[in-house]
Amino acid sequence: MAAAWPQNPNTATDPFRCTRCGACLAVCPTYRVLARETESPRGRLALARAYAEATLPPSPRAAELVYRCALCAACNAACPTGLEVDTVLQGLRARLAAEGLLPESLQRLRSAVEASGNILGEAQQARELWLEQGAGDAPGRHAAETVYFVGCVASLFPSSYPIPQQTLRLLRAAGQPVTLLGGAEWCCGYPLALSGCEDALPAIARDLVGRVVALGARRVVTSCPSCYHTWRHIYPRLVPEMPLEVLHASEVLLQAVQRGHLQPEPLPAQAVTYHDPCDLGRRSGLYDPPRDLIRSIPGLRLTEMRDRRDGALCCGGGGNLESVAPGLVEQAAARRLQQAIETGATTLVTTCPQCRRTLAGAARRERARLRVLDVSELLGKAVSE
To answer: How far apart are CA 239 and CA 142, in angstroms?
Structure first.
C-alpha cells in the first residue's frame, strides 16, 4: 500500500475476520440493486481472501467486481466484527492497479487529472466559469485568512455552480476574508486514491498545501465532502507540517449563523429531509452541522429518512462508480430518492455536489415533485443580499 492510504496492522483490515453473517448485504447499495453475492461486501472480501492465499490470480473479471463498489463504508457500520471492509477493498484496488488491471475508464480519469489537473480533462481556466460577474477579486490574487477550495464537481459541472456561488456569497456576507485558487486549484487527488493509485497523492498534497500557504491562509474550507476528507484526514499524513485548519462549508456557515453574522429569514413553511453524504458522515463523522443549519431557518421542519446518519443509504455517487457503472449509480440514486419521497418532504437537502448531482438526476428521471438542493443554496434563499 502507498503512504496515502497505509495498511493498518490491526485485525480490522484482515479479510479473514469476515464471518459471512450477511449483515452487510442490506446496507450495500450495489447489492441492493443487483442482488448478487459477488456484488456484496462479503463476496468482495472472499476475493480478497483468495488473493491473500494466492488461490486466485488477479483478473479483469475480478477487477470489474472490485471496482463496481461505491466504497461508501456502509458495510463498516453494519459489520458486527468491526471489519474495515472499505480499507480491505482499497488495498485490493491498489494491487489491481499495480498489476495493470485498472479499468479503462479509470485510466482515462487518472490521465485527465495528471495532465489537466481536473477529473474532466478540461482547461483549468474552466474552474473559474462559475464565478458570477462582480463576485469579487480575481481568484488567487490576494492574501486571505481562508481559502475556499471549490473542488472539481462544483466548479466544472454547470448544474453545480449554485453551490460555490452561494457559499462564496454567504462567506463574504458573514465577513469572512476568503480567496480562491481559481485556475491554480488542482484536483485534490481523492479520485486517484479511490482507484488504487495512491502513489500520485503525495506530490498533489505538497503542491496544493504550498499554494494555499503561499496566500497567507490559515484554513481551508470546502463544500465537497471528498475534498474535505482528503484535506482533513489524508493530507496531514502526507504533509506532517501542514499548518492549516480544514473545515466543511456547513461548519463555517453554521458558526456564522450562531454568532449572528448571518441571520436567516423565514422561508415558506415546508418539510425538508436531509441526505448524509458518505464522505462527510461515515468517513468524517460530521452529521449535525448540516442539520443544525436547516433547523436554523425559520419555517422549515426537518423530517428524517428511514436510513440516516451512519446508516444512511448511499446515493451511489462515490467510489468512482459513476466512471465504471453509471447505470448502477442511477439505480442506487433512485432507491435513495424513494426514501426521501416517503418522508413527505418537498425539498431534499444534502451537503455534497456529487450527491446533489446524482439525486437531482434521479428526481428528474422519476419526475418527482421534490427539489434537490445543497444546504448552501437553502441557506442562501433565507439570507438576503
So the answer is: 24
pLDDT of residue 134 exceeding 60, the answer is no
> Which H/E stretch holds residue 238?
helix 235-238
Q: What is the pLDDT of residue 1?
A: 32
How many domains are there within the chain? Answer: 3
> Which triple of cell numbers denotes residue 188?
485534490
Q: Determine the Cα–Cα distance for residues 73 and 77; give it in Å rounded to an integer.
A: 7
Residues 278 and 378 in one domain: yes
The per-residue DSSP string of 137-157 comes to SPTTSS--SEEEE--HHHHH-
Phi, psi dihedrals of residue 119, rounded to the nearest 5°: -75, -15
Rounded Cα distance between 191 and 4, Å, is: 12
Whether 4 maps to a domain, the answer reads no
- Structural domain that includes position 197: 116-255
Q: Which residue has the cell 439525486?
A: 359
Q: Specify if 267 maps to a domain.
A: yes
Question: Which residues are registered as beta bridge partners of 248?
Answer: 222
Other CB atoms closer than 10 Å to residue 190's CB: what's the count? 27
Q: Are residues 214 and 285 in the same domain?
A: no
Q: How are strands ordered across the β-sheet holding 219-222? A: 178-179, 146-149, 219-222, 245-248
CA nearest to 99, candidates 31, 239, 196: 196
Q: How many angstroms separate the CA atoms of 67 and 18, rounded? A: 20
Q: In 3D, which of 16, 30, 7 has the Cα closest to residue 83? A: 16
- Which grid coordinates are listed for 128? 473559474
Does 227 share its domain with 276? no
On whether the CB atoms of residues 231 and 262 are closer than 8 A, the answer is: no
Is 153 found in the same domain as 221? Answer: yes
pTM value is 0.92
Query: 79-88, 230-239, 300-309: lowest mean pLDDT where?
Result: 79-88
Confidence of residue 138 (pLDDT cuts 50, 70, 90): low
* Mean pLDDT of the region 56-74: 91
